[in-house]
Structures are given as structure tokens and as C-alpha cells.
């Protein structure tokens, strides 16, 4: 019956084997030819879904880390305003206006990557607040920025906390104030960022201890690892009465672009 249908002229081709064992072989081969690609496709689909889920978790973790930076800056500024309200209300008012400008920038900017130019603009707004607090004579800032680096994308709020640390732990504790130098340059596919202060420095020699001491330094290092993998360097060098030097070296292109899109 089966062979009669197979041999029916309505079929495009027919199989009329002389050996009965051929039919099972053909059936098994057909199942394998169909089943194996389906299995591969299903495994690939599962791997893609797992990768997407992993990326979503990383992105969520990154957002949490970034959101932890902003309160440090906000609380310190509000404390400064509170101390000035009674003694110098005009100065307090001026800082509030400048703070509103910074907050407007932070609330408007939702990207995880920003250009060096945008990060420097945020730092300038922050420094305007700090200079109001300390006085322009007590806080000097020198910027040495490679023009070729200004459009390179970096994680948002990655340099501002370094400047904030330089002021809080270095310059503010030094009689007469001091100077902060911000150096950024591009070289052979890497971006070099450096924040140096001539403040009081620290007696700590272990970098892990210094990471725990500073504002969000561990946070910065973890975010750098999430964006660049192992292709970054983060180094702190500090000596008592000789200031602190923080250096970051990252590739021009992130390791995980899907994380920061």
C-alpha cells in the first residue's frame, strides 16, 4: 500500500528500494536533518535570551552605581548652603542658583556615556560652587585638555567625584588652599585622565584603603570595570603634605557597548 502511493505519478519523485532496510535509514536521516538545525536554533535562541538578560542586569547594576554618586555631591553642597544661610545669605543664594544649574544638567542627562567636553562642563559648574564656598584665591584649577580628547565618550560622572575628593580630602584641609590640575589626553587608542591636587595628602599607602576613604572611588572603579572589562587602569598615589594624584587610563572604545547604549 505504501509503495503503491510512493510510486504514484502525482509525486515529484519516488523511492522504490529493493532493500527494506533503506526506508528506516531514510526516515532517521530525515529526522536528523530536520531535528539538528532545530536544536541548534533553539540553543542559539536560549543563549541570546540569556545574554540579553545578563546585559539588562548589568545595565541595572550600572544605573544603581551611577545613582549613588549624585547624593554625595548634593549632600555636601546642601551642607555648605546650610552653614552660609545665617552668616552670608547672599553667598548662600548664589550657591543655590549654581546648584540648580548643576541639578538641571544631571536630571536632563540620562545617558550612561557622555563626551569629555560634557563631563568637563559639569565639573566647571561644580567648581563654580566650590569657589563660592572657598574663595577664588583658595581654590585654583588648571586644565590641560588635549583637543582630540574632547569628543571621546566616557562614563558619566566618572571625573567629577575625583575633583570633589581633591577638594574635600586635600585642598579644604590645607591652610591657604591649593591647586587642582585636570589633565586629559588621547594617545594610541587610549584616553588618559589625571586629577592632581597639592593638598594635605594622606598617610595611607594601600590603594584599597584609599579607595574606601574617598567619595565613590570604589564606585568609579566598579563602573569602569563594567564598561571596559579588564582594559583599564585606575591608580592612586598620595603622600602626606604632598597631595594626591589619581590616574585613569581607558580605551577609546568601551568593552561592553550594549551596556551603555
Automatic annotation (TrEMBL):
Domain of life according to the entry: Bacteria
MF (Gene Ontology): phosphorelay sensor kinase activity
A Pfam short name: His_kinase
Keywords: Membrane, Transmembrane, Transmembrane helix
Transmembrane stretches, start-end: 20-41
Start and end residues of each Histidine kinase domain: 158-254
A Gene Ontology term for the protein's cellular component: membrane
Presence of the UniProt keyword Ligase in the record: no
PANTHER family assigned to the protein according to its UniProt record, in alphabetical order: SENSOR HISTIDINE KINASE YPDA
Protein name: Histidine kinase domain-containing protein
Species whose genome carries this gene: Candidatus Schekmanbacteria bacterium RBG_13_48_7
Amino acid at each position: 500500500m505504501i509503495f503503491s502511493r510512493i510510486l504514484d505519478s502525482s509525486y515529484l519523485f519516488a523511492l522504490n528500494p529493493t532493500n527494506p532496510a533503506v526506508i528506516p535509514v531514510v526516515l532517521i536521516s530525515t529526522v536528523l536533518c530536520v531535528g539538528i538545525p532545530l536544536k541548534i536554533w533553539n540553543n542559539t535562541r536560549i543563549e541570546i535570551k540569556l545574554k540579553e538578560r545578563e546585559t539588562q542586569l548589568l545595565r541595572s547594576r550600572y544605573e544603581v552605581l551611577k545613582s549613588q554618586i549624585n547624593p554625595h555631591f548634593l549632600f555636601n553642597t546642601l551642607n555648605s548652603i546650610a552653614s552660609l544661610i545665617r552668616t552670608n545669605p547672599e553667598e548662600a543664594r548664589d550657591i543655590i542658583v549654581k546648584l540648580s544649574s548643576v541639578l538641571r544638567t544631571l536630571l536632563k542627562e540620562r545617558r550612561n556615556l557622555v563626551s569629555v567636553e560634557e563631563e568637563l562642563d559639569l565639573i566647571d559648574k561644580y567648581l563654580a560652587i566650590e569657589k563660592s564656598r572657598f574663595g577664588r584665591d583658595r581654590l585654583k584649577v588648571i586644565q590641560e585638555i588635549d583637543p582630540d580628547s574632547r569628543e571621546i565618550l566616557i562614563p558619566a560622572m566618572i571625573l567629577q567625584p575625583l575633583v570633589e575628593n581633591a577638594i574635600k580630602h586635600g585642598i579644604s584641609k590645607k591652610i591657604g588652599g591649593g591647586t587642582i590640575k585636570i589633565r586629559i589626553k588621547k594617545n594610541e587608542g587610549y584616553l588618559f585622565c589625571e586629577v592632581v591636587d597639592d593638598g594635605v595628602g594622606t598617610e595611607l599607602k594601600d590603594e584599597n584603603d584609599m579607595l574606601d576613604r574617598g567619595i565613590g572611588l570604589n564606585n568609579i572603579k566598579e563602573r569602569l570595570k563594567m564598561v571596559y572589562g579588564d582594559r583599564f587602569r585606575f591608580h592612586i598615589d598620595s603622600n602626606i603634605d604632598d597631595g594626591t594624584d589619581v590616574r585613569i587610563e581607558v580605551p577609546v572604545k568601551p568593552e561592553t557597548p550594549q551596556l551603555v547604549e
